[in-house]
Amino acid sequence: MSSPRSDLTPLRLLWLALALAGAALALGQHETMWQGIRTAEIVAQVTLGLWCMVETMVRRNWLAFLTFPALALGIGCALPLYLFIRSRRIT
To answer: Cβ(32)–Cβ(73) under 8 Å?
Structure first.
Protein backbone atom coordinates (compact mmCIF):
# COMPACT_ATOMS: atom_id res chain seq x y z
CA MET A 1 0.00 0.00 0.00
CA SER A 2 1.47 3.34 -1.02
CA SER A 3 1.53 6.34 1.24
CA PRO A 4 -0.40 9.48 0.29
CA ARG A 5 2.86 11.42 0.10
CA SER A 6 4.14 9.18 -2.72
CA ASP A 7 1.41 10.59 -4.97
CA LEU A 8 3.01 14.04 -4.84
CA THR A 9 5.33 13.74 -7.81
CA PRO A 10 7.54 16.66 -8.84
CA LEU A 11 5.13 17.51 -11.67
CA ARG A 12 2.13 17.52 -9.31
CA LEU A 13 4.06 19.76 -6.91
CA LEU A 14 4.77 22.11 -9.81
CA TRP A 15 1.04 22.28 -10.70
CA LEU A 16 0.24 23.05 -7.06
CA ALA A 17 2.91 25.74 -6.84
CA LEU A 18 1.66 27.37 -10.04
CA ALA A 19 -1.94 27.31 -8.76
CA LEU A 20 -0.86 28.99 -5.52
CA ALA A 21 1.21 31.54 -7.46
CA GLY A 22 -1.76 32.32 -9.72
CA ALA A 23 -4.00 32.80 -6.69
CA ALA A 24 -1.44 35.00 -4.95
CA LEU A 25 -0.99 37.17 -8.04
CA ALA A 26 -4.75 37.59 -8.47
CA LEU A 27 -5.21 38.49 -4.82
CA GLY A 28 -2.18 40.79 -4.85
CA GLN A 29 -3.54 42.72 -7.83
CA HIS A 30 -7.08 42.72 -6.39
CA GLU A 31 -8.41 41.01 -9.53
CA THR A 32 -10.74 38.56 -7.86
CA MET A 33 -14.29 37.74 -8.85
CA TRP A 34 -13.76 38.53 -12.52
CA GLN A 35 -12.69 42.18 -12.07
CA GLY A 36 -10.63 43.55 -14.95
CA ILE A 37 -11.07 40.39 -16.99
CA ARG A 38 -10.49 40.51 -20.75
CA THR A 39 -12.56 38.80 -23.42
CA ALA A 40 -9.82 36.29 -24.24
CA GLU A 41 -9.64 35.23 -20.61
CA ILE A 42 -13.41 34.75 -20.49
CA VAL A 43 -13.15 32.39 -23.46
CA ALA A 44 -10.33 30.50 -21.74
CA GLN A 45 -12.32 30.20 -18.52
CA VAL A 46 -15.44 28.95 -20.30
CA THR A 47 -13.32 26.43 -22.21
CA LEU A 48 -11.70 25.16 -19.01
CA GLY A 49 -15.09 24.95 -17.31
CA LEU A 50 -16.58 22.89 -20.14
CA TRP A 51 -13.53 20.63 -20.31
CA CYS A 52 -13.66 20.12 -16.56
CA MET A 53 -17.36 19.20 -16.63
CA VAL A 54 -17.12 16.81 -19.57
CA GLU A 55 -14.01 15.04 -18.36
CA THR A 56 -15.29 14.83 -14.78
CA MET A 57 -18.40 13.05 -15.99
CA VAL A 58 -16.23 10.51 -17.83
CA ARG A 59 -13.57 9.98 -15.16
CA ARG A 60 -15.85 10.44 -12.12
CA ASN A 61 -13.19 12.66 -10.57
CA TRP A 62 -15.62 14.80 -8.57
CA LEU A 63 -12.84 16.65 -6.79
CA ALA A 64 -12.11 18.41 -10.09
CA PHE A 65 -15.21 20.55 -9.57
CA LEU A 66 -13.05 22.61 -7.18
CA THR A 67 -11.83 24.26 -10.36
CA PHE A 68 -15.04 26.28 -10.65
CA PRO A 69 -14.55 28.43 -7.52
CA ALA A 70 -10.89 28.86 -8.51
CA LEU A 71 -12.03 30.46 -11.77
CA ALA A 72 -12.95 33.53 -9.72
CA LEU A 73 -9.21 34.00 -9.16
CA GLY A 74 -8.49 33.67 -12.87
CA ILE A 75 -7.24 31.12 -15.34
CA GLY A 76 -3.73 31.39 -13.84
CA CYS A 77 -5.02 29.72 -10.68
CA ALA A 78 -7.76 27.47 -12.04
CA LEU A 79 -5.84 25.72 -14.83
CA PRO A 80 -2.86 24.59 -12.72
CA LEU A 81 -5.27 23.56 -9.95
CA TYR A 82 -7.26 21.45 -12.39
CA LEU A 83 -4.07 19.84 -13.72
CA PHE A 84 -2.98 19.12 -10.13
CA ILE A 85 -6.29 17.46 -9.33
CA ARG A 86 -6.47 15.60 -12.65
CA SER A 87 -2.97 14.16 -12.36
CA ARG A 88 -3.69 12.24 -9.14
CA ARG A 89 -4.47 8.56 -9.18
CA ILE A 90 -8.15 7.78 -9.16
CA THR A 91 -9.17 4.79 -7.07
So the answer is: yes
Whole-angstrom distance, CA of residue 10 vs CA of residue 73: 24
Query: Over the stretch 12-63, which tens digit does the pLDDT of each residue have?
Result: 999 999 999 999 988 888 766 666 677 888 899 999 999 999 988 888 888 8
Rounded to whole angstroms, the Cα distance separating 60 from 50 reads 15
Confidence of residue 1 (pLDDT cuts 50, 70, 90): very low
Nearest Cα residue to 69 out of 38, 39, 26:
26
Residue 36 phi/psi, 5-degree rounding, is: 70, 25
C-alpha to C-alpha distances, 71 to 21, 30, 76, nearest whole angstrom? 14, 14, 9
* DSSP track, 17-43: HHHHHHHHHHHHTT--TTTT--HHHHH
| Whole-prediction pTM | 0.79
